[in-house]
Design goal:
The protein is of the alpha+beta class and 103 residues long. It has 3 helices and 6 strands. Helix 2 links the parallel strand 5 and strand 6. The mean pLDDT is 86.
Length: 103
């Protein structure tokens, strides 16, 4: 049997993975990126503090990792550590998604 240590989840293996909860605004923000002509890969089920979305702005051929949070949502320690190694856009609303694409 294969087991792994996943940050924030402890020891996981066959039958032990838990589905990650997504924020209430996840679908709305994902659709906003898609309506702006972006390619979107939903990474929300990966876990291990990996951001929620991988987004490619087609017109600029620019890639970004996106962590979706609610207006009052806070990054967990593992997410902060991930963002210290990789550039991550924290998006809380459709307006934030638009700003991230235009940045």
């Amino acid at each position: 049997m294969v087991f792994a240590i996943v940050p924030g989840m402890g020891r996981v293996g066959p039958g032990r993975m838990r589905a990650k909860r997504v924020d209430a605004n996840h679908g709305e923000i994902k659709r906003a990126f898609e309506r702006m002509g972006c390619d979107v890969i939903d990474l929300s089920r990966v876990g291990g503090s990996v951001p929620d979305l991988l987004v490619r702005v087609r017109a600029l051929n620019r890639w970004m990792l996106v962590e979706i949070k609610t207006a009052k949502g806070r990054l967990k320690p593992g997410q902060v550590a991930f963002a210290e190694r990789w550039p991550v856009e924290v998006v809380r609303s459709v307006d934030d998604a638009i700003a991230a694409v235009l940045a």
